[in-house]
Write a structure and sequence with these properties.
about 280 residues, mainly alpha, two-stranded antiparallel sheet, 9 helices, 4 strands, about 75% helix
């Protein structure tokens, strides 16, 4: 009971801060997700370093990922031009060159894991800037779209809740037993249906995107979000850890809360870019 209350309280604070910063404005969004990028990367590289064979230099990798997010924000919001990414190229070069001097047992592995964190975490979170700043269909200028951004989280939250409730009630067929024994196909489809239905509410408040597209967005977010969740579960099983951290009491670490989001961002970004909606 105590753990449930702690989990509920932490979840309430998490949702309130996230929603508040998204709706308050573009700069509060940028600050919040710069911090989230840093925390997720810190947890990720920290998890890797629990393996005695891996020795990744956490600080420069975290700084590199945060800079990628900030540079992408300035590129999209202020039209800064590609020159804004030059310092990130220096980070990439530094990562290669630094292993010459660190004299670790397996520098090739350290390079691979350093760049894995950038692709797995920093890149998708940086793409949030493009989702948050959709171009106007009239002027072509980027406009901050908090409702579209929030939909990512709402669809994931509804899917998680629906999948849990349906799976606990009638779940019998395992979705991916080798990686996540508790997930079921019944739960997956239960969460999927609820998320798609909830997309009609977003269509009412954001008619610039058609109902059909909102349903397609919800569908793609749930599918790729599920793969994101399973991918983090595979990583934790490989490293033999239960949670990515303990930063969020009752919920584990930040990476545990954003695992589905990392893949769902790709789903929404690709959907928007291919269909040119906004």
């Amino acid at each position: 009971m105590k753990n449930l209350l702690l989990r509920t309280f932490t979840g309430f604070i998490y949702v309130a801060v996230l929603t508040g910063c998204i709706f308050y404005g573009i700069y509060s969004f940028a600050v919040l997700f710069s911090i989230i990028t840093a925390l997720c990367l810190w947890e990720f590289y920290g998890l890797l370093n629990t393996n005695n064979q891996i020795n990744v230099n956490k600080i420069p990798n975290v700084i590199g990922g945060v800079f990628l997010f900030i540079a992408t924000f300035l590129f999209v919001w202020k039209d800064s031009g590609p020159v804004i990414f030059l310092p990130y190229l220096f980070y990439l070069l530094f990562t290669f060159i630094s292993e010459l001097y660190r004299k670790k047992e397996n520098p090739l592995q350290n390079w691979a894991y350093s760049f894995l964190g950038q692709i797995y975490i920093a890149l998708p979170l940086s793409l949030l800037n493009k989702i948050a700043l959709l171009p106007s269909s009239i002027s072509g200028e980027s406009n901050y779209s908090p409702l579209v951004l929030l939909s990512l989280f709402v669809f994931i939250w509804i899917n998680d809740t629906g999948a849990y409730l349906v799976g606990m009630t009638i779940g019998k067929h395992r979705l991916f037993e080798r990686i996540s024994p508790k997930k079921s196909w019944e739960g997956f489809f239960g969460g999927l249906v609820l998320s798609v239905l909830s997309s009609l509410i977003f269509a009412h408040f954001y008619p610039e995107i058609s109902s059909l597209h909102w349903m397609g967005i919800a569908l793609s977010i749930v599918i790729l979000g599920t793969f994101g969740d399973l991918s983090e579960s595979l990583m934790k099983r490989t490293l033999n850890v239960k949670d990515s951290g303990n930063s969020l009491p009752g919920h584990g670490g930040f990476l545990d809360r954003f695992d589905s989001l990392l893949f769902a961002i790709y789903a929404l970004f690709i959907y928007i870019e291919l269909l040119q909606i906004g």
